[in-house]
Amino acid sequence: MHAWLSTYDHNLPLIDVIADPAADPVAVRLAALSLQVGLDSGFIQAEAVADAVSQLWMEEENGVSNAHSEGRRDLARLLESADDYVIGLYRCVGPLPIAAAATLLHAHARIMRDRADMIGMLRAATA
Fold first, then answer.
1. Cβ of 110: how many Cβ atoms within 10 Å?
2. What superkingdom heads the lineage (predicted)?
3. What is the reported pTM?
4. Which contacts of 85-93 are long-range, i.e. CB under 8 A and separated by 24 or more positions?
5. Distance of CA 118 to CAs 4, 5, 10, 95, Å?
6. What is the mean pLDDT of residues 52-61?
7. Digit-coded pLDDT (tens) for 63-91
8. Structural domain that includes position 84
9. For the chain, how many structural domains are there in total?
């Protein structure tokens, strides 16, 4: 068991999405983009993009259409200082309706969280 745990591929949750023929094509692109990012940083960055897009969705739902709204400013700030990974996540969902983009990004952030959490459990189990 120790040998198996020590060779666990932390990318399996992402590979599962990529290999799933029923997966949303955008979810597959998000997963593929995330294969090479760090565990904790990947989760934190995915969650930040998901939260920023969700804020825009909330504003849209509340009738806020101001080009200088808080959500738009927050997203602009995030993208201004973003690395290629964050920009790539945003580009994957950019053409989608805001609700679909937010939903896909939050689902992806959960996968990234689970990916990071699994490594912690494996480290504890193999210690």
1. 15
2. Bacteria
3. 0.89
4. 85/33, 85/34, 85/37, 85/42, 85/45, 86/45, 86/48, 86/49, 88/33, 89/30, 89/33, 89/34, 89/45, 89/46, 89/49, 90/49, 90/53, 92/26, 92/29, 92/30, 92/33, 93/26, 93/30, 93/53
5. 14, 11, 7, 32
6. 95
7. 998 888 999 999 999 999 999 999 999 99
8. 2-126
9. 1
